[in-house]
Amino acid sequence: MLDNAIFVKTNILKLSKPFNLESGITLENVEIAYETYGKLNKNKTNAILVCHAFTGDAHVAGFKEGTKKAGWWDKLVGSGKGIDTDKFFVICSNVLGGCQGTTGPKSIDPKTGKPYAMNFPFITIKDMVSLQKELVSFFEIKKLVSVIGGSMGGMQVLEWVNTYSDMLMSAIPISTTMKHSPQQIAFNEVSRRSIMLDPSWNNGDYYEKASPELGLSIARMIGHITYMSDISMEKKFSRRTKTYNKSFDVNFEVENYLKYQGDNFVKRFDANSYIYITKAMDYFDVSEEIFKNHINNLKFLVINFESDWLYPKYQSLDIIKLLRLKHIPCTYCEIHSTYGHDAFLIDIEEEARLIKPFLESIKI
Amino acid sequence: MRETEFDYNLISNWIPEKTSVLDLGCGKGYLMDFLKHKKNVFVHGIEISESCIYKCVEKGLSVFHGDIEDGILDFTDKSFDFVILYQSLQQIKNLSFVLSEALRVGKKVIICFPNFAYINARICLFFLGIAPVTKHLPYRWDNTPNLHFFSIKDFNIFCKNSKINIIESRFLTKTKFIRFFPNVFAERAIFLIKSL
Q: What is the model's pLDDT at position B1?
């Protein structure tokens, strides 16, 4: 561990009031799991909200006591890093519907005393963002220096712009889209089907029994294929095998990798959360309404990665197209990378070279 | 004073304060940075080189990473007071299309290009019999980003045929204005144009 490593713990904020969803349904006893880094200044004008991707969590940087694994964006967030915690107060929370501390399908329904399971109400990206707004308000922050995130985190960034643009000074959507394409929905649907057709899924009611590990692990394997690229797979595995014998066992390195990822994933992720969150992503569409509000003072940095075929370049360019119609030219960079969609979590050095000066250019 | 700085000053004299400027092929953002500080203008650039994008962002500039030919399409008519093509026009494949797009997006367009009929280039071609390699056309024929080789006279004819109005023009060699036979003695030209 490095000397300047930060040690963090995940906090829980319990909402005192019921939480209203976009659907009109109200959720009671909502809890938000969050972490913060750096210090909030006196005027509360140095806060940045980081939004995590699909299966991420609030642990964006540093080390939790007793663990050796750094946060998922540790190379970007920290002292002197791209998002400099010496200067900024960084907040990251687990999304609504998640399973890493924030209220979701595996949380206890106060009405029944049992996990919500599939009785958890349908949620949207807008609901996730509304809950983050509760957290930001809890800190009495009126304006965020920036809201930043990749993939589904980027969707949350766009939803922030759509709904609460007056609370933002800038936005950094990375490797993301204003709406899922049929191809993206298709991959999610295959993943959902694989969970829901696992007999252990049991219509979502499995919390006291064996969970649908098989279905969830296959869903994750599909996910991992879409997060990589042809080149990155060639580099990482090529056609290497464990044995020279032709067999029906897991033999190719790529098979082994996917099995490993699938097996590990089921230990930390809830199958029902997978279903709820992927649906929230698929129904997300701000392409008609975004930028309708007055956003003239808002600065944008849009980033995507060259080999990302899951969230292709045109989806980032569509954002810029709309901004240009509003006479808001924004900074855009397509970073050269061979890592596919995963690149936004890997090619940090290039990302930081854009994010750091961009944040510095915003006058607090 | 360096030549580029001389050009930057010349260009900035045509640009009033607090206007908006789009720099096509902005490179590392030197001209944008200059105009931003000198004239307090809003600047935005388009640049194809990723490494240049980092340099622009480091300067706090707003830039779009992409090809000029696609990069300019989504801007609405007359959305910038000025569009600048500083030493980039000769490198654009679809020159006349980009120029017409620049004239659509910008109220006025500023262009700076090397004069292919400059005396030194003529010497190369006429006496040495080789494709010109001069201080202002520094690339050898087999490794040059320049796709179009045109003179001041060519550009004047082009403007006339394309119904482009030349508002101002400056012809230069090093940091001196050339008024006598500029198509022979000027190594570069700067034009301020708009559509008729």
A: 64
Q: Among A320, A321, A358, select the one facing B57 at the smallest CB separation.
A: A358
Beta strands in A116-193 (DSSP E): 146-150, 170-174
The confidence band for A294, taking pLDDT boundaries of 50, 70 and 90, is confident
A1 pLDDT above the threshold of 60: no
Alpha-carbon gap: A54 to the closest alpha carbon of chain B (Å): 27
d(CA B23, CA B46): 6
Residue B75, chain A, CB below 8 Å: the answer is yes
A232 touches A307 (CB < 8 A): yes
Closest CA to A149 of A261, A279, A63, A58: A58
φ/ψ region of A162 (left if φ > 0, alpha if ψ in -120 to 50, else beta) reads alpha
Domain residue spans of chain B: 3-116+150-195
- The mean pLDDT of B63-92, rounded to a whole number, is 94
Residues of B within 8 A of A321 (CB-CB) are: 74
Residue range B3-116+150-195 forms a domain whose CATH class is alpha beta
Going by pLDDT thresholds of 50, 70 and 90, the confidence category of residue A66 is confident
A interface test, pick of B20, B22, B53, B83 with most A CB neighbours within 10 Å: B53
Q: What is the 3-state secondary structure (H, E, C) of A319-335?
A: HHHHHHHCCCCCEEEEE
Q: Do B58 and A332 touch (CB under 8 A)?
A: no
CA dihedral B92, B93, B99, B105 (to 10 degrees): -80
- Tally: H helices and E strands in chain B: 8, 8
* Residue contacts between A and B (CB atoms, under 8 Å): 53
Q: What domains, with CATH codes, occur in chain A? A: 7-178+285-360 (3.40.50.1820), 183-281 (1.10.1740.110)
Q: Which contiguous run of DSSP H or E holds residue A357? A: helix A348-360
CA distances from A176 to A61, A206, A312, B76, B146 (A): 21, 33, 8, 25, 36
* Four-point Cα dihedral A71, A74, A77, A79, nearest 10: 110
Alpha carbons A31 and A12: distance in angstroms, whole number: 6
B172 forms beta bridges with: B177, B188
Q: Given pLDDT bands bounded at 50, 70 and 90, which one contains residue A265? A: very high
The DSSP bridge partners found for residue A303 are A174, A333
* B17 neighbors B41 (Cβ within 8 angstroms): yes
What is the ipTM metric for this complex?
0.94
Q: Could you tell me which residues come within 8 angstroms of residue A197 by beta carbon, excluding any fewer than 6 positions away? A: A215
Cα A296 to Cα A328: distance, rounded to the nearest angstrom: 7
Average pLDDT over residues A28-55: 97
Report the range of poorest mean pLDDT among A293-302, A306-315, B104-113. A293-302
